[in-house]
């Protein structure tokens, strides 16, 4: 739904430029193209962040359910690693094979 809002804003800006400015057609199209590229980049950024967030939530759920994750070639489980919600990372427990080693949840599979 947000995409329709941005599309309507682009149309409104284009209509405004058409009737209320002294820009040439070429300048108007360049402005429209730049505005569209900015909006497209914002949309792509949001889509990528949503996918990353879903991946992190999936890794957290697997970790919570006791499954073993693979992070940079090391098996991460809830016995050897703790999960830091604030940094969304796994931190090795003191009495494990990987004390104080940190892995971001986004780099795990």
What is the gist of this entry?
It contains two helices and five strands; from the N terminus they run ααβββββ. The strands form two sheets. It has a three-stranded antiparallel beta sheet with strand order 3-4-5, with no helix packed on it. It has a two-stranded antiparallel sheet with strand order 1-2.
In words, what does this structure look like?
- Helices cover 54% and strands 16% of the residues.
- It is an alpha+beta fold.
- It has a 3-stranded antiparallel sheet, with no helix packed on it.
- A hairpin with a 2-residue loop joins β1 (69-71) and β2 (74-76).
- The longest helix has 40 residues, at 25-64.
- The relative contact order is 0.10.
Number of strands: 5
Model regions low in confidence, pLDDT < 50 over at least 5 residues: none
Helix count, per DSSP?
A: 2
C-alpha-based Rg, rounded: 23 Å
Biggest sheet, spatial arrangement of strands: 3-4-5
Overall mean confidence score, pLDDT: 88
Tally of structural domains? 1
Distance between the termini: 32 Å
How do the helices and strands line up, and which of them pair or pack?
Blueprint: H1 2-20, H2 25-64, E1 69-71, E2 74-76, E3 81-84, E4 89-92, E5 102-104
Antiparallel strand pairs: 1-2, 3-4, 4-5
Keywords, please?
109 residues, two-stranded antiparallel ribbon, 5 strands, 2 helices, 54% helix, alpha+beta
């Amino acid at each position: 739904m947000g995409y329709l809002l941005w599309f309507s804003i682009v149309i409104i800006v284009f209509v405004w430029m058409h009737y209320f400015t002294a820009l040439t057609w070429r300048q108007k199209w360049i402005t429209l193209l730049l505005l569209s590229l900015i909006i497209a980049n914002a949309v792509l950024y949001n889509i990528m962040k949503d996918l990353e967030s879903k991946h992190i939530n999936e890794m957290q759920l697997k970790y919570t359910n006791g499954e073993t994750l693979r992070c940079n070639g090391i098996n991460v489980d809830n016995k050897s690693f703790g999960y830091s919600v604030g940094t969304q990372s796994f931190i090795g427990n003191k009495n494990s094979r990987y004390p104080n080693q940190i892995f971001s949840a986004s780099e795990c599979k």
